[in-house]
Design a protein that fits this description.
Layout: E1 8-18, E2 21-27, E3 40-43, E4 46-54, E5 57-62, H1 64-69, E6 80-85, E7 104-113, E8 121-126, H2 129-132, E9 140-143, E10 146-154, E11 157-162, H3 164-169, E12 180-185, H4 187-198, H5 211-216
Antiparallel strand pairs: 1-2, 1-6, 2-5, 3-4, 3-6, 4-5, 7-8, 7-12, 8-11, 9-10, 9-12, 10-11
Length: 219
């Protein structure tokens, strides 16, 4: 379990493809303290298991499914990536609950920064429509493992608010239009969608979560 509060920008040392799978080697710098074999670490929002440790460099196996559902297949040597260690019992929850199970990828359509270095901005991302069906305005979404607040939604597209610390401490500071990102929708949205779809009040063809539907179900 993770929170979407990025701890460090790691560096990809190398990516080795192996028969439909891969192994990625990442320099996680100061986060190496206390890391053990088998630990879970989120790399750009995807939960991976530590396979080996050498100095500050750790390696992770990437399954074929993860290569298909995430941006890992496009990683390049020396690329900066978001790193977050798993949540410990008793830690403060600064973002929102993130499982590290990426739902799919999106593409940055626009990045609008307000005038002034301390003003932040917004980021627009296109995704499969099924992902936006599990999002709500002012709700949470993880973009490359970063906990962000949704500003607006339309079928297959959403925008999020960017604050200065996010731009300074994560990959969104240098990501640009056309770049692919990993997306994980809020797990509570997934449960609500499943509940709504299974309800007798649900239509034959689910159309996603709506305010009217939630009221019908007593929310």
């Amino acid at each position: 379990m993770f929170t979407g509060i990025i701890e460090h920008l790691g560096t990809v040392e190398r990516l080795v493809h192996r028969a439909g799978a891969a192994e990625v080697f990442v320099d996680i710098g100061p986060l190496i303290e206390g890391v053990k074999l088998g630990d879970s670490i989120a790399i750009n929002g995807a939960c991976l298991t530590v396979k080996s440790i050498k100095g500050t460099i750790v390696s992770f196996d990437i399954s074929g499914e993860s290569l298909e559902k995430t941006t890992f297949g496009k990683l390049r040597t020396s690329e900066k990536i978001n790193v977050e260690r798993s949540l410990r019992v008793g830690d403060r929850l600064g973002g929102h609950f993130i499982s590290g199970h990426v739902d799919g990828t999106g593409v940055i359509e626009q990045k609008v920064l307000k005038t002034g270095s301390a003003s932040g901005g917004t980021l627009g991302v296109s995704v499969k429509e099924e992902l936006t069906q599990m999002m709500v305005k002012k709700g949470s979404v993880a973009v490359d493992g970063i906990s962000l607040t949704i500003v607006d939604i339309s079928p297959g597209w959403f925008s999020v608010a960017l604050i200065p610390i996010t731009l300074a401490a994560t990959t969104l500071g240098f990501k640009k239009a056309g770049d692919a990102v990993n997306i994980e929708t809020d797990m509570f949205g997934k449960w609500i969608k499943k509940f709504v779809s299974a309800s007798p009040l649900s239509r034959e063809k689910p159309t996603g979560i709506t305010e009217e539907k939630l009221k019908e179900l007593g929310f």
